[in-house]
Design brief:
Layout (H helix, E strand, L loop, with lengths): L4 E4 L15 H14 L3 E5 L5 H13 L4 E7 L2 H11 L6 E7 L2 H8 L3 H16 L4 E7 L6 H13 L4 E6 L6 H14 L7 E6 L6 H10 L4 E4 L13 H10 L15 H12 L20 H9 L19 E3 L5 H10 L6 H17 L3 E2 H12 L9 E10 L2 E10 L5 E7 L3 H12 L4 E11 L6 E10 L2 E9 L2 H27 L1
Parallel strand pairs: 1-2, 1-8, 2-3, 3-4, 4-5, 5-6, 6-7, 7-8
Antiparallel strand pairs: 9-10, 11-12, 12-13, 14-15, 15-16
Bound molecules: 3-methyl-2-oxobutanoic acid and zinc ion.
The site of 3-methyl-2-oxobutanoic acid (KIV) has 10 residues, from strand 5 and strand 6.
Length: 512
């Protein structure tokens, strides 16, 4: 069966989702999960866009050896040079250059004539080839470009040394028939097309990104691009997990292989959702909470008699474990370490000790610790920077009664190591807690989003809180996991403020 390479852009196009803001450690953790998932290429970021992105791409390029790491660049020398600095340590450094080819973009955005665009594309691909042996060139807004111009420019760019040609549906405008025809035409009319991989990159504005990507594969695409959970600009990108499972389940229609390890899908999807704060809708294909739930009596009866009556994908295929129970009170450090590794986390000794201590504390209050619980704890520990100055929660108390004013008392340690304590009221428990926290810190806070979810099921489920706020006018987000919802809320608040302080610290370092 023909093979299709998978190019993941969760850390670049996915990270461009409105409100998403993930730091270097978080990106690194996602990158490690993507490596386990078996993606062939991962786009780690856009190095010239910010110092933070540059550093994250560099760290990923230095760490990931099981996949090719790439970074985005505009068609300009300074972007290419910056990308090289970030990517040169990768096991297979790769560059992704884009330049718009549609009349709308060339006229209004680039303000260039088609011939000028062709010259720039050729020059920048040749320039990039002096450093990178693998260069992908994207004809931005390809689906609204003139086909004769596309044929012309693609031939030239391949002659200049491009190794992959990508035809993005930048604004999610195309349809399966149209996108399939585009790939067939490019295959038929570009004389040197056999020298390169041909890639599909679809956005989901009309809800057709996955169908369009598959249509491209049926018409000659040898690489597919997308993101985990379909996150991305506006309505997002094609969801890689949906494409992978569709190719697997409908092999009769789609006889193509990928290197993806399907049982890693759920874990990777959960991690991306937690770190980006982008909730997965319950009814989302493949990874939604209800994707394998059978509600109606007729369906339940059928599934009990024979699962295939109503179930075309087994939960196990994508790594949803029916028995998610992992460890309990008596589990020792060795069993714990083994489970941590099985879950895909590589922890330093210091972080392993911290995780084990947190786990032990949790077993005093929760009888059964599930894989999901453990993943939530490990994600927080793995993505928390040690040895940096930050606010630390020492203790808190919230008094709530249906007929009195909620009051919170909080004790904190400031980044300078000073203990501080105070009390405030609010209209609800969380508000009183947040008013108190705000009174204790120097920064000015405006809370813009608060999400509360349970990790798994049951009354003793862990609480997962995600907040978005402006801290001194800058938008940041924060996460907190704890058994108690108020404790998770307090942790999420301080996590956001500490992330702000960390950003401030790196900006100051940059300017020094
Ligand atoms: O959608 C798009 O056109 C892109 C390019 C940068 C490839 O993401
Ligand atoms: Zn895109």
């Amino acid at each position: 069966m023909p093979h299709v390479n998978v190019f993941d852009t969760t850390l670049r196009d996915g990270e461009q989702s409105p409100g998403v803001n993930i730091n270097k450690l978080e990106k690194l953790e996602i990158a490690k999960h993507l490596e386990r998932l078996g993606v062939d290429i991962m786009e780690a970021g856009f190095p010239a866009s910010s110092q933070g992105d540059f550093e994250a791409v560099k760290a990923i390029a230095q760490t990931i050896k099981g996949a090719s790491v790439t970074g985005l660049a505009r068609a300009k020398k300074s972007d290419i040079d910056t990308a090289w600095e970030a990517l040169k340590d990768a096991s297979e450094p790769r560059l992704h250059i884009f330049l718009a080819t549609s009349p709308i973009h060339m006229t209004h955005k680039l303000k260039k004539a088609p011939e000028e665009v062709a010259t720039q594309a050729v020059e920048m691909v040749s320039y990039a080839k002096q450093k990178f042996s693998h260069v992908e060139w994207s004809a931005e807004d390809a689906t609204r470009s003139d086909i004769d111009f596309l044929v012309y420019i693609i031939e030239k760019v391949i002659d200049a040394g491009a190794t992959v040609i990508n035809l993005p549906d930048t604004v999610g405008y195309t349809t399966p028939e149209e996108y399939g025809l585009l790939f067939r035409t490019i295959r038929d009319r570009v004389p040197n097309i056999d020298k390169v991989a041909l890639s599909a990159h679809c956005h989901d504005d009309l809800g057709m990104a996955v169908a369009n990507t598959i249509a491209a594969v049926e018409n000659g695409a040898t690489q597919i691009e997308g993101t985990i959970n379909g996150i991305g600009e506006r309505a997002g990108n094609a969801a890689l997990e949906e494409i992978a499972v569709a190719l697997n389940i409908r092999q009769d229609q789609y006889p193509y292989t990928t290197n993806l390890v399907l049982k890693e899908i759920k874990r990777t999807s959960d991690l991306v959702s937690k770190l980006t704060g982008m909730q997965i809708p319950g009814n989302k294909a493949v990874v939604g909470r209800n994707a394998f739930a059978h509600e109606s009596g007729i369906h339940q009866d059928g599934v009990i008699k024979n699962a295939s009556t109503y179930e075309i994908i087994t939960p196990e295929l994508v790594g949803v474990e029916s028995n998610n129970l992992v460890l309990g009170k008596h589990s020792g450090r060795r069993a714990f370490k083994e489970k941590v590794e099985q879950l895909g986390f590589q922890l330093t000794d210091e972080k392993l000790t911290e995780a084990f201590t947190t786990f032990k504390k949790l077993t005093d209050r929760k009888k059964e610790i599930t894989g999901d619980d453990l993943s939530a704890i490990l994600t927080d520990i793995q993505t928390t920077l040690t040895n940096v100055k930050k606010y630390e929660l020492r203790a808190f108390q919230v008094q709530y009664g249906s007929s009195n004013l909620p009051t919170a008392t909080v004790a904190l340690m400031t980044p300078e190591g000073a203990p501080v304590e105070t009390a405030r009221t609010g209209q609800g428990s969380v508000e009183s807690l947040y008013n108190t926290l705000e009174a204790l810190i120097e920064e000015t806070i405006n809370l813009t989003d608060f999400q509360l979810n349970s990790v798994g099921k049951g009354r003793d489920a862990l609480a997962d809180v995600y907040v978005k706020m402006t801290v001194n006018g800058d938008e940041v987000n924060g996460r907190g996991t704890a058994q108690d919802i108020l404790e998770a809320s307090a942790i999420a608040f301080l996590n956001a403020v500490n992330r702000f302080l960390l950003n401030e610290h790196s900006i100051k370092k940059e300017m020094a």
